[in-house]
Write a structure and sequence with these properties.
By secondary structure, the protein is of the alpha/beta class. The protein is 43% helix and 18% strand.
């Protein structure tokens, strides 16, 4: 499996009609602090918009809803991975991405045969407090040697100036959140990432 090299993460489906027309083809919906009914509507809306623009939607955490709504890709952190019903996920045909931050977590992830692994934070990030120090490009290179042909996603503190370096170090995709969503001109920023990463497609 090959991932698009620009992997955008959004917190609401309402971003998608603005950003997918810029050429974004791979997006994760990471919606937090929502009631169950609202969350179901959010995922359904994101799925519909991604279908309209020919983009791949990855649902963060909520694998039961992803199955119910006919989604085809989920992303799980380590805690969610431990609690998820992996046989049910596989029976539903969902593809799976898993977060990793150290060698132990990578071993745990590889044991479930994911469709990609994410390594983070590559650089310092303002998105959330993390107990892990920034991994740096050498760790990206080392991770890629360990995972081989399995797609590797670099995440955490990535901006336009750092993006090429992460991809050159071996990441198959770069995951970006704040550098697009907090940008003064998010549409233009998303388009700049799409243009920068085309040579890695």
């Amino acid at each position: 499996m090959k991932l698009d090299p620009f992997y955008l993460i959004v917190d609401r489906a309402s971003w998608l009609p603005r950003l997918l027309p810029q050429g974004v083809k791979l997006v994760q919906l990471r919606a937090k602090d929502m009631e169950a009914d609202e969350l179901r509507r959010e995922i359904a809306e994101a799925k519909a918009v991604c279908t309209r623009y020919g983009a791949q939607l990855i649902v963060n955490d909520y694998w039961q809803l992803a199955i119910d709504l006919g989604c085809d890709f989920i992303h799980l952190g380590q805690e969610d991975l431990a609690e998820a019903d992996l046989p049910a996920i596989r029976r539903a045909g969902l593809r799976l991405g898993v977060s990793t931050h150290d060698e132990s977590e990578l071993d745990t992830a590889l044991a479930v045969k994911p469709d990609y692994v994410a390594l983070g934070p590559v650089y310092p990030t303002i998105l959330k407090k993390m107990k892990w120090e920034p991994q740096g490009l050498e760790r990206v290179r080392g991770w890629k040697k360990l995972v081989g042909d399995l797609p590797l996603v670099g995440i955490g503190g990535i901006n336009l100036d750092r993006a090429r370096g992460v991809l050159d170090a071996g990441a198959d995709a770069i995951s970006v959140v704040t550098d697009v969503l907090l940008n003064e001109h998010p549409e233009a920023r998303a388009r700049a990432y799409v243009e920068l990463t085309r040579e890695f497609v």
